Amino acid sequence: MSKKTIPFDYVEPLGARVLVRKDEPKRETKGGIALPETAEIPTITGRIVTISRQVELDEDFPIKQYDKVLFHPKNAIPVDFEADNQLFVVPVEDIVAVFRRKSADE
User: Fold this and answer.
1) What CA–CA distance (Å, rounded) separates 89 from 32?
2) What pLDDT sits at residue 41?
3) Pick from 24, 23, 28: which is nearest to 70 by CA?
4) For residues 61 and 94, what is the distance between their CA atoms, to the nearest angstrom?
5) Which residues pair with 17 in a beta bridge?
6) Which domain holds residue 22?
7) Is 83 part of any domain?
8) What is the distance of C-alpha 10 from the center of its chain?
9) Do the domain assignments include residue 6?
10) In a domain, 10, yes or no
11) 12-61, pLDDT tens digit by residue?
C-alpha cells in the first residue's frame, strides 16, 4: 500500500524566526560585465515571506511581510518547499538590516 503525498500549503516559522525568499544571484556586475552561469556573487538579501507569531507580537523587531532585508546566512536553514524557490528560515537575530524608503512627508 503506498501513501499519497499531500503537498503543503505554506511554511510557518516558529519561535523568533522569519521565512525569507533569498534574492536571485547576480548575473551582471554593477559595471555591466556579464558573469558566466557558473559564477555566483553571494547574496544575503531577500524578502520576508512570513514572520512567526512571536516576532509579529514583539515591538523590538519592526519587520513585516514583504520587507527587503539583509541577513547573515550562517544560521539560515534552507527549506525544500518548491523547486525554484530559495526559501530560508532565518533566526530574527540574524536579520541585520531592513531596507526602507523615506516617505514623501520627510
Assistant:
1) 32
2) 53
3) 23
4) 12
5) 91
6) 17-26+38-98
7) yes
8) 14
9) no
10) no
11) 899 999 999 988 766 666 777 776 666 555 668 999 999 999 999 988 88
Number of domains forming the structure of the chain: 1
pLDDT reading at 83 higher than 90: no
Q: How wide is the angle at C-alpha 56 spanned by C-alphas 53 and 57, nearest 5°?
A: 90
Strands 45-51 and 87-91: unpaired
- The pLDDT tens digits for 50-79 are 999 999 998 888 899 999 999 998 899 988
Distance CA 88, CA 76 (A): 6
Residue 10, Cβ density class (10 Å: 0-12 exposed, 13-18 middle, ≥19 buried): exposed
- Bridge partners of 18, per DSSP, are 51, 90
Contact (CB, 8 A) for 92 and 24 = no
12 found inside a domain = no
